[in-house]
Structure formats: C-alpha cells, structure tokens
Amino acid sequence: MRFQLTLRFSTDYPYAPPQVQFATRCFHPNVDYASGAICLDILKEQWSSTYTVRTILLSVQSLLGEPNNDSPLNGHAASLWDADADEYRRVCVSKYEEATGEKVGAAAAATTMAAPCLKVEATPPTDAAADDAAHATPRRESPTAAARAP
C-alpha cells in the first residue's frame, strides 16, 4: 500500500511548519479521511525551525504506527484501532482499494499491517542541491537585485 503526501511550504518556512496532508485517502485515527489533514503536534504547536523534511516524514511514519487516540481526527478509525485490530485492517484495506482502485492481496495486507495500516515512503531528491534547497531558508532579494538578474 502506497500513499502520497503533499507538503506545502509558506514563505515563512522554516519558522512556520509546512502544510502536510495525504493526497491519497487514508483511513487512520489521526488523519481526516475526507481532507487528508494530519493531526500531528510537530506540524502545529510543537513546530521547530530545526525540523527538516526528513524529520517531518519520520514523524508521520511514527504516527501511523502509533496513533494518538486521545485526539483523533477519525473517531471511527480510533475506535476500531483500540477495539478490533482485524476489523481495523479490513476497513483500512477496503478504504485503500476504494480510493486507489488497487487490489491489496490478503497476504500483503497482513504483512503490511502487522502493526500499522500504513507505511510512508519518501522519494529522495535527485541531487544534493535539491536536498539543500529543501532545507534552506528562503532567500529574499531586493527589487533592484532581482531587476539586475539576467
């Protein structure tokens, strides 16, 4: 099972967190199924300008395996997670197949969902410059410097 995330960085980054949401519908206690919004403290009140994209993705991955059911965005998923792991897995796979049109075999679903329903995979930048740019503070040029640029 593969899920896509969207990360949007404001001009205030890294002093403000990026907006992170699932582009693929995701059935999970801390994910709003309709919007893809993620309830994760480091993307809100616990944000630090030292966090990198890697930190964000690792935190999302950790949340997926260990949801915070004290403040769920999806109460149904939280209830199932706590009460009936087999039913949670069944619903999770069913919702994934419905959202993506991709069939998940029973063996693959059981392996994928030994603990969490989801696995996050990040595609690394193609070169070091792209990675550096993702971590850099946005550079602001003066209007005159921008006008002189070729």
UniProtKB/TrEMBL annotation:
Transmembrane segments: none annotated. Residues 1-102 form the UBC core domain. This is UBC core domain-containing protein. PANTHER family: UBIQUITIN-CONJUGATING ENZYME E2. Belongs to the ubiquitin-conjugating enzyme family. InterPro entries: Ub_conjugating_enzyme (IPR050113), UBC (IPR000608), UBQ-conjugating_AS (IPR023313), UBQ-conjugating_enzyme/RWD (IPR016135). The active site is at residue 39. Residues 132-142 have a biased composition (Basic and acidic residues). The keyword ATP-binding applies. Keywords: ATP-binding, Nucleotide-binding, Transferase, Ubl conjugation pathway. GO terms for molecular function: ATP binding; transferase activity. Residues 123-150 are annotated as: Disordered.
